[in-house]
Amino acid sequence: MKTIKAIWATLSDKDKKDFLFFLAKRNRRGDTRNIDFVKLMDSGRTKNIHEVLYGKDSSGAFNALCKRVQDTLIEFVASKSFAEESSDELEVLKLLLASRIFFEQKLSKIAFKTLEKAEARAKNIDNYALLDEIYHTKIQYCFLNPKWNLNTIIGDYENNRTLSQQDFHLTMAYARIKSELQKNPKKPVNEIVIQTFVEFDLKINEDLTYKSLNQLMELTATTAKLQNDFYSVSPFMIEMYEVLKKKGEVPQKHVYYHLNMLYLMSVTKFRNKNFELSDDFIVKIETILSNSPKTFVRGFNEKVAILKALNQIYTGNISHGFEILNNGVETSLNKKLLLLMCLFQQCEFATAYDVFKTLNRTDNWYEKKMGWLWVLKKNIIEVLLLIELDKFDMVLIRLQRFSRNFNKRLRQIGEDRVLIFMNLVSDYHDNPKIVTSEDFKDRVENSFEWIGREQEDIFVMSFYAWLKSKMENRDLYEITLELMN
Predict the structure, then answer these.
(1) Which residue in 418, 410, 411, 351 sits closest to 385, CA to CA?
(2) Model confidence at 394, in pLDDT bands (50, 70, 90)?
(3) Superkingdom of this entry's organism (predicted)?
(4) Based on the structure, what is the number of domains in the chain?
């Protein structure tokens, strides 16, 4: 049951409807109960489902039903993934197999054309494994084609093996970096990358593929996000971006990697409070998107809009930020959290709470969907909102839940600052008058290790702005902008 619920939580509303249709097509009997079971689970019913379905305690039949639904759900996810997977690899494989059949049937002329078509497509998607098979086939039948040069084909084969080996080394290096970061979550990611590249005899230069550069930048940015430290990784991100520029004009087949790397650079600049440079990268992204397939546009439009809104909000143009956020039909979870933050900074607490109440799923669900840091921010904002709305009984419950759910994990990654901040929030909640006292100000001053505006994370500063606004009895947004600048 737990496995079924976990898989079910990853599906979109459309996927869920498709699965019910998938089940209906598979059912040969009218009493299988699998569709009823899925609908009950989707509605949130988890207890005593077996009694609802069978009318009595029939755990054996229910367990068998769960097993069938789980197997069918796994099959559905696998077949859906296969259907949505890029058809390029399948097309190359079909062409390769067809060429071999044509060779066996002595249809050499069509076999040559088919194999060369397969090679061109495989090169276009950098599929070294398929190219390896294609060159094997070309070498095997080279004697039939006077236009083919065996030495040239062998050279292509060896060059492909070199590229394949490099790609494998990069995959191992990527896995090693992730493993090291898990063991040492506070260790600077650039140090780990440099050590790993030395170990696998790799260099950060133009020889890296667009895919590899993108993976490294993605990994670096993700780690910086977890460590709340984009300042330390900024030089490393810039170095990789300079490598990207040195590679020259990006081929159309690698446009996704190019867009994602520009986006990661924009995020890095924003998190380091370089709002103008962040906007410059956004302009580059939008220029490329204007001539890109709709699938790319859909994938980046929302992320870019959120980043544009953030840059506006933190440079004093909050009304423009609101306008950007409210554009478009769909309101995603990231948009909701940002909208909540904007309303909070404008002291529109009742409206912000109305938005918050629409986030009515469990934290476990949100963590699977959005990640742990998203859930952490959501919980901190909730506590601050409840304090502002004088919902004191609820504040105490949420503070206890926060301590239970986050204290251990925050200590494991060395984020004691969040715990210190929440303790100060708790003290303010217990006695609001102490916040303007000299003793409280001294406590705040001595509680944190101040690292300066340039190094401090922008979201950490935003939460601190709320505490400072209480200490100085001043406007929250005004103080937020002061801290940024």
Answers:
(1) 351
(2) very high
(3) Bacteria
(4) 4
Secondary structure of residue 170 in the 3-state scheme: helix
Give yes or no for residue 305 having a pLDDT over 80.
Answer: yes
Q: Which two tokens stand for residue 367?
A: 């963590």
123 lies in which domain range?
87-148
39, 167: one domain? no
pLDDT, mean over the chain:
86
Q: Which residues contact 153 (CB under 8 A, 6 or more apart)?
A: 135, 138, 139, 142
Q: Assess whether 21 and 53 both reside in one domain.
A: yes
Burial readout 62-99 (b: 16 or more C-beta within 10 A, e: otherwise): beebbebbeebbeebeeeeeeeeeeeeeeebbebbebb
Residue 66 sits in the same domain as residue 102 = no
335 in any annotated domain: no
Residue 239 and residue 216 in contact, taking contact as beta carbons nearer than 8 Å: no
Identify which of 196, 206, 131 has the alpha carbon closest to the alpha carbon of residue 170.
196
Tokens standing for residue 433:
């008058």
**Average pLDDT estimate for 17-37:** 79
Q: Rounded to an integer, what distance in angstroms lies between the CA atom of residue 426 and that of residue 8?
A: 37
Q: 């509680």: which residue's tokens?
A: 447
Given the structure tokens 């469990």, which residue do they identify?
A: 362
CA triple 231-234-235, angle to 5 deg: 125
> 399-458 pLDDT, tens per residue?
999 999 999 888 877 778 889 999 999 999 999 999 999 999 888 888 877 667 777 778
Token output for 110:
């069509």
Looking at the domain assignment, is residue 131 inside a domain?
A: yes
Q: Which of 62, 84, 106 is the last residue of a domain?
A: 84
Q: Which two tokens stand for residue 206?
A: 């133009």
Burial of 311: CB neighbours in 10 Å, binned 0-12, 13-18, 19+:
buried
Q: pLDDT digit string (tens) for 41-77?
A: 887 776 777 777 777 667 777 788 888 888 888 888 8
Q: Measure the CA–CA gap between 55 and 293, rounded to whole angstroms.
A: 53
Give 270's contacts (C-beta < 8 A, 6+ positions apart).
278, 307, 310, 311, 314, 458
- DSSP track, 217-245: HHHHHHHHHHHT-HHHHHHHHHHHHHHHH
Within a domain: 432: yes
